[in-house]
Amino acid sequence: MNRKRFFSPAEWEVLQYIAAHHPVTAREVADHFAASHDWARTTVITMLDRLRDKGYLMRDESGPVHRYTPREPQNDMMQSMVRDFVQKALGGSVSPFVAYLGKEASLSPQEVEALRRIVQELDAVEKSDPPTPPEQEETGDA
């Protein structure tokens, strides 16, 4: 599989559409975006090719018409993209993201409850597997 890279907002829209409607033909994707965004068919084909090159899409060439599907399920794809974002943009720390959620994000009650469950699960894991204490330095007084 090719190394995944970030993509443009337009590529994101195409990927989301395919994830919601797969398997789809290039014509179906092009017709949708021609109607909703007035994009040319060649523009959509270019984005499909880029998303394949980046490893986000697969193309089934077994029939007379090629059909596109996401390389992985939508939830897995989202987790992978968030992981990449945290690693690359935030240097591996989720603290800036959590600060954003607390100060700027408009969360629904369901989203807040989901975050509570995640924190409870993290607490339960931490309590069941306490960190091991650092090894005591040898002082030579033994």
Concise structural overview:
This protein has 6 helices and 3 strands. It has 142 residues and is mainly α.
Tell me, briefly, the overall form: elongated
The CATH topology of the largest domain corresponds to Arc Repressor Mutant, subunit A
How are the strands ordered across the major sheet? 1-3-2
Helix content, binned percent: 55-70%
How many domains make up the 3D coordinates? 2
Annotation field: number of helices: 6
Radius of gyration (Å): 22 Å
The quaternary structure here is single chain
Count every beta strand, where a strand is a DSSP E run of 2 or more residues. 3
Largest sheet, strands/sense/barrel: 3 strands, antiparallel
Set down the secondary structure blueprint.
Elements: H1 9-21, E1 24-25, H2 26-37, H3 41-53, E2 57-60, E3 67-70, H4 74-89, H5 95-103, H6 109-128
Antiparallel strand pairs: 1-3, 2-3
Helix pairs in contact: 1-3, 2-3
Q: If you had to describe this structure to a student in words, what would you say it looks like?
A:
The chain has six helices and three strands; from the N terminus they run αβααββααα. The mean pLDDT is about 85. It has about 140 residues and is mostly helical. β2 (about 55-60) and β3 (about 65-70) form a beta hairpin. It folds into two domains: about 1-90, Winged helix-like DNA-binding domain superfamily/Winged helix DNA-binding domain (Arc Repressor Mutant, subunit A); about 95-130. It has helices spanning about 10-20, 25-35, 40-55, 75-90, 95-105, 110-130, and strands at about 25, 55-60, 65-70. A three-stranded antiparallel sheet has the order 1-3-2. The protein is elongated.
